[in-house]
Amino acid sequence: MKTAGWSTRRVAGQVHRSECAVRNCWEQWAREGNHARKTGSGATRKTTGREDRRIVRQALVDPTVTRSTIRADVGVAIVPQTISRHLAEAIHKSKRTFRALPLTPEDRQLRLQWCQARSMWNVTDWQKVVFSDESRFVLGTDDNRVRVWRRPGERYNPPHTVLRHTARTAGVMVWGV
To answer: For 18-140, where are the alpha helices, taking DSSP H only?
Structure first.
């Protein structure tokens, strides 16, 4: 790509690497005629293949397990980022549980009535309505939410990936009155 006249930025965007990495690779190519990593470069592995598999298995068995619990169970002095990296390699991501508000038949009926009462509203009427979402703003590092390890497409697979509310939550408005 560089020999074809592409800019470093364009190459970096195409191969999903930083501009610095592309620049270093190009300089090594110009200097040595190759772009291979030097032997022994990079950090040494702290876990064995068996420990890696154990980390992934724990996330499969209990998707709500925390990185600190996994680290204690594996018994190796590793940082939480290492656990996240091993799980990401196994296509697991840490996600918030899907929150579902169960609608009772009465809630459904009230929502239907609310919609039917406003079915003939025009644009002027709707401009007087304020819609708000249920966004939370967290200024710290911990949002105190349960997180689960899951693969893509597992969003709605119970039992661990769906957290059901059993009561009304502060800040959640229920229409229909």
So the answer is: 19-32, 49-61, 67-74, 80-89, 105-117, 123-126
91: left (phi over 0), alpha (psi -120 to 50) or beta: left
Residues 6+ apart with CB under 8 A from 54: 73, 74
The pTM of this model reads 0.42
State which amino acid sits at residue 53: R
Contact 18, 26 (CB under 8 A): no
User: How confident is residue 153, by pLDDT bands cut at 50, 70 and 90?
Assistant: low
CA gyration radius, the chain: 25
What does the buried/exposed string (b/e) look like for 65-97 if buried means 16 or more CB atoms within 10 Å of the residue's CB? Answer: bebeebbeebeeebeeebbbebbeebebebeeb
Q: Round to whole Å and give the CA distance between 146 and 63.
A: 10
> Distance (Å, rounded) from C-alpha 20 to C-alpha 147?
34
For 59: left if phi > 0, alpha if psi spans -120 to 50, otherwise beta; the answer is alpha
